[in-house]
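Fig. S4 source data, part A: sequence.
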Amino acid sequence: MHSVHLAVLMTSHDRRTRTLSALRALEEQRGLPAGTTLGVHLVDTGSTDGTPEAVRLRHPAVEVMSVGADTPYNLALRIASRNSRSGGGGGGPLGGAPGGPTHAWTHQLWLDGGVALFPDALAKLLRTAGAAGPGAVVVGAVRNAYGDTVYSGRRGRSLTLVEPGEHRPVPCDTYDGRVVLVPRAVYDLVGDPDKAFRHRMGDYDHGCRARRAGVNALVAPGHAGECGGGPGAPGSREPGIGVREALRRVTSVQELPPRPWCVYCLRHTWPWAPYLMLAPYARTAVRAALGRLRG
């Protein structure tokens, strides 16, 4: 197998403990092909809990860039990608990627700062990629502390979550951007997540653009890692809230902000786009109204 040089793209914001856990898990990966090197590029968006300082102290080989707290997630990921192309992040257990030439890395790994990889996760992702060939994206499914799959590949217009197979990869149409291995050949074809999606939806759009360009996406067998906490907050689905509050929540940056959702629908769901652009907000309003009546 040819030498593997991974450019790991991470972002952080006030998650010091989780970010350090993610980096420690990355450092403890086993079963990697001989000569594999990692260059980690972390963009911190205005943390006030000492995340950048702690990372620099404990993992000095990690390239850390601090940007403003108003920098949305998708833009921070794009900055990390730009930094990986400039050749930084070398020298050390979490460095080691050759510096200087922009062609040094063979794969980018999108890694959410809240995900701790299992010890064999990278080896499994690379094996899956090797079997699929250089023109495929490999997604790592992530479970929560309760064992439920919360991030993975997605399928269909409804973006249904794909459960990972036990022994074989499972095809998907697009993907959550928590653990994603992007080979150089795919990057050269598709590029970074689009800046039109400031916070959410950039990963889904990237997967759809990749599919349109003829790139296959696969969910690797098993779970690649675990994220903290249990089931997420109910958000717009919380029982008892009114229609106005439900709509405020569903249109927030944490759920489904209208502008990027409309861009996504117009790009990837035509001719159903006019219906799909309105459907989640209409469903939210109806659900909240019925909930109030039943209450």
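Fig. S4 source data, part B ends here. The chain has a mean pLDDT of 90.
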